[in-house]
Amino acid sequence: MVQPYPVGPVDRVDPNEKMLFLSAIRTTMFAMASTPEDRDLPSSHADSILRDAFGLRKWRPHQREAVGAVLAGRDVVVTLPTGHGKSLVYQLPAVALDGLMLVVSPLIALMEDQVGALRARGFRAACLNSLQESSQRRETLAAALRGEYDLLYVTPERFRSPAFRGSLDDLGVVRLAVDEAHCISAWGHDFRPDYSRLGAYREALGDPPTIALTATATARVTREIVESLRLRDPLIVRAGIERPNLFFAVRTIESRDERLDHLADRLGSIDGPGIVYTSLIRDLEEFHVELARRGIETLVYHGKLSTSERQAMQDRFMTSERSIVLATNAFGMGVDKADIRFVIHAQIPRTLEAWTQEIGRAGRDGRPSFCELLYFEEDLAIQQTFVDWANPSIEYMMLVYETLRGWGERVQTKDLDDLRAELLVKNRHDNRVSICLRWLEVLEVTAGSFEGHDLRVVRELNPDEFPEWAGSGEKRDHDLRALLEMLRFAKERERCRRQLLADHFDLDAAPDACGRCDVCASTDEFVATSFERRQAPSSLRASERSNEASPSHCLPDVEFERGDWVEVGKGLRGQIVRVERTGRSVRLIIQDATSLEECSIDPRRRRVRRLPRSS
Ligand SMILES: [Zn+2]
How far away, in angstroms, is 325 Cα from ligand 1 center? Predict the structure, then answer.
């Protein structure tokens, strides 16, 4: 159900702020009482757009009410797990309303996917980002100014571009949507300094009604979103941690060997695609080798791979029916794969918010799926160090600034590694320098970038220009407390994990134990009764060969046939080695012409183009 403004245990609420809360609750409750979900709002117009433009017959929980509020011009904060149709809350109004829906989204890959999907369905959508040629950006902006789009996606950094900022008045923005809105919160797990300026940008746009969207937000983060975006009397929509098909488990591990044995055992007992998250690339690489020795092949995804390698790994995972990907937390935003059967954290994540977001990728098809966290005490030290690095002191930030200034003109012959060397940074994971550079950029002390070879200091910086909390002990303590909460969750053996999560996110919990967590039920029994065992690579090939040998699998109306050369999306090119038909579903088994790997593609879900024979 829709939650009123959250009033659970909130740290340090001053009395005035509390009054503000209470009035917000009353307003929301009043609004709820006068417009129940299944009456008048939103209009039947929205219902017909849902059906005709989006091809959907039914609203998912919370969508109808949120869309109604957006159409009515109210500010809205939507917290819905990924895969629950958050995007529709702004996409449908974008179609329904005259004027532009400006969408702020932090990840370029994600926005390009969304724009591609929207355009494929005939919507007037475009995006502006730093990976485009400047001529392309100019054309897109000009088209937006001519009113050719209903949706325009931009990264928050775009607002720093003078050309874009100069166009804000003329874009005809009727609504602003802020995706991944938790990035606004200095206390959230994904803070991005650029997000902290969105309130000011919103003002520059003439204060359009605003939709903030996120998958996970505690009461405190929700409050920060409201304050930072300067929302007025927003409708707060929060979904619970329902997902009854997910089983939650925590396993305490005593040694590195035990962890590998356990991982191999688990992966062997669950067939189907899944993700194993790790904190450190070093460990990820070790798992990859050691699991292979135990007969389990894995894909790898981490920040040391090039963009194209990461894209290739992601594509292979998305099209596979049983791949396991070993990944750092860089993997996942934008991964919308319905049949992920498990998400295992081989190392403890930073916060419960991060964990919740990451496990939320499992089981979007509603089938039983498994989420396990392996807790090994040694890993805690890694996370504590990460907390220190995530919070460079003001002195450190000033040191970075002074170093750049001291270099003068020479800064353009240097790169990030030079700066790290100058500051004696030894550990690859120590990202303090990058965080400081980000701040200098956001405060407009520097312009350009190392990558563009045009970084320069454009004005002087005074240490008191940083926001109060930046570089403060308070922020670091907050992050350590969040880690402690994660630890408490990991060590809990008495209380149902769903109830613990509900407490953490200030949501109503069912009074009864859930029966789908390791505290309430037997983990091994769940795994044994819910999944097929993973097929060994050799037996897999044998069974696939038997499919190939049976011509009855290929019905006469096959559009593609064995031997066809095809292109899938814009990346993969290869030859169809087999067409599999089960009932009405078709799968093309395609051998990638470059890697010679086989992958299984559903031609109804991916764009597959037959290439002329000669290519
Ligand atoms: Zn439970």
Answer: 27
CATH number at residue 591: 2.30.30
What is the count of structural domains for the chain? 4
Are 166 and 202 within one domain?
yes
CA of 270 to the centre of ligand 1 (A): 21
CATH number at residue 345: 3.40.50.300
Q: Whole-angstrom Cα distance, residue 351 to residue 348?
A: 9
Query: How many whole angstroms from 264 Cα to the centroid of ligand 1?
Result: 25
The domain boundary, picked from 190, 207, 238, lies at 238
The pLDDT score that the predictor gives to residue 613 is: 59
Please give the residue range of the domain that contains residue 369.
246-379+492-530
pLDDT of residue 387: 86
Question: Do 64 and 164 fall within a single domain?
Answer: yes
Q: Distance from the CA of 246 to the center of ligand 1, in angstroms? A: 11
The confidence score (pLDDT) of residue 583 equals 67
- Predicted pLDDT of residue 262: 96
Burial track 70-88 (b if 16+ CB lie within 10 A, e otherwise) = bbbebbbbbbbbbbbbbbb
Give Dmax (Cα) for the chain. 75
What is the distance in A from the centroid of ligand 1 to the CA of 519?
Answer: 6
Q: What pLDDT digit, counting tens, does each position of 215-260 carry?
A: 877 778 888 899 999 999 999 988 766 688 999 999 999 999 999 9
Task: Choose among 184, 8, 11, 179: nearest CA to 79.
Answer: 179
Q: Which of 269, 210, 190 minimizes the C-alpha distance to 69?
A: 210
Q: Give the angle 600-333-197 at the CA atoms, nearest 5°.
A: 155
Q: How far does residue 496's CA lie from ligand 1's centre (Å)?
A: 4
For residue 173, tell me if it sits in a domain: yes
CA of 385 to the centre of ligand 1 (A): 32
In this structure, are 222 and 259 located in the same domain? no
| d(CA 497, ligand 1 centre) in Å | 5
Question: Which residues in the chain come in under a pLDDT of 50?
Answer: 1-41, 538-558, 614-615
Residues 218 and 79 in one domain: yes
Q: Are residue 425 and residue 316 in the same domain, yes or no?
A: no
Task: Provide the pLDDT for residue 185.
Answer: 76
From ligand 1's centre to the CA of 364, what distance in Å? 20
Estimate the crossing angle of helix 256-269 against helix 523-530, to 10 degrees.
30
Cα–ligand 1 centroid distance for 500 (angstroms)? 9
**What one-character DSSP code corresponds to residue 573?**
E
Ligand 1 center to 265 CA (angstroms): 23
Report whether 237 contacts 76 (CB < 8 A): yes
Are 353 and 499 in the same domain? yes
What local confidence, expressed as pLDDT, does residue 43 receive? 64
249 CA distance to ligand 1 centroid (A)? 9
Please enumerate in sequence order all residues whose Cβ is within 8 A of that of 473, keeping only pairs 6 or more positions apart, or say none.
none
276 and 374 in a single domain? The answer is: yes
Residue 418 half-sphere exposure toward CB, CA atoms < 13 A: 12
Residues that place a CB less than 5 A from ion ligand 1: 496, 513-514, 517, 520
Domain assignment present for residue 557? The answer is yes
Tokens found for residue 467: 């926001």
- 360 and 404 together in one domain: no
**Looking at the domain assignment, is residue 250 inside a domain?**
yes
What is the whole-number distance in angstroms between the Cα of residue 203 and the centre of ligand 1?
A: 45
The verdict on residue 615 lying in a domain is no
